[in-house]
Amino acid sequence: MLKAVNLTKAYGSHTALDHLNLEIQAGEIYCLLGSNGAGKSTTINLFLGFIPATSGQAFIDGVEVSVNNQATRDMVAYIPEIVNLYPTLSGMENLEFFSGLSGFQYTKQELGRFMEVAGLQASAFHKRVSSYSKGMRQKVGIAIALVKKAKVLFLDEPTSGLDPHASNEFSEIITQLSLQGVSTLMATHDLLIAKNLGHRIGIMHEGKLKQELISDEVSHADLTRIYIDLVKEKEVRV
Ligand SMILES: Nc1ncnc2c1ncn2[C@@H]1O[C@H](COP(=O)(O)OP(=O)(O)OP(=O)(O)O)[C@@H](O)[C@H]1O
């Protein structure tokens, strides 16, 4: 569903992403770990077509992002740390607006059903987004992904700053979507979420994908050790 072939992004002499090769299957949840500046957001931005690659290719469901960015954007949804919504509109009005932008028309009842699946309480549907918590905004973000029938979710640090309950609820929804065949690429600093939610984990460092792990095959303690050892390489060299 997602494929990167020698995907590279350079800013002048600085290589933010260095020959990334990655494949993510339908329904797979892949978590990218890495310290600040490792290249996680760059990877997501390249798949979204927000920035052009210096070399290499990114594909979504076989379509090359740089060749047909409209087609690839139609297949995906992006949920950043803070979901960007219109604060003076209600959650429902935002959902209605974004589903219209994606070319889908739904009844209010259908939109309400998407909100429920995304985990938003019905009592919040018609409240202004300016009064929403971060977790509630993310639920609207998920509802937007549902209305556009996204095949792929890109999540950039979605659980940072969420309380444990909200973070757990978020993980459950992503797991449900994965069971329906939705692929997820998630950048996170949270090793526990990566271990518990991800099927596979990629550890990045200084623009390179250094190691890939299968979550079920690694304990949280081992993951922590492997991660720290990789990140420490930098300190030893400096
Ligand atoms: N527009 C830009 N111009 C120059 N350098 C950039 C630009 N965007 C990102 N970079 C650099 O690319 C590298 C990778 O950044 P990126 O945002 O992908 O890291 P990250 O792993 O997502 O980090 P974080 O965990 O802090 O979000 C960093 O060194 C960053 O400074």
UniProtKB/TrEMBL annotation:
CDD domains: ABC_DR_subfamily_A. InterPro entries: AAA+_ATPase, ABC_transporter-like_ATP-bd, ABC_transporter-like_CS, ABC_Transporter_VariousFunc, P-loop_NTPase. The keyword ATP-binding applies. The keyword Transport applies. SMART domains: AAA. PROSITE patterns: ABC_TRANSPORTER_1, ABC_TRANSPORTER_2. Coiled coil: none annotated. Residues 2-231 form the ABC transporter domain. Pfam families: ABC_tran. It comes from the Bacteria. GO terms for molecular function: ATP binding; ATP hydrolysis activity. Keywords: ATP-binding, Nucleotide-binding, Transport. This is ABC transporter ATP-binding protein. It comes from Siphonobacter curvatus.
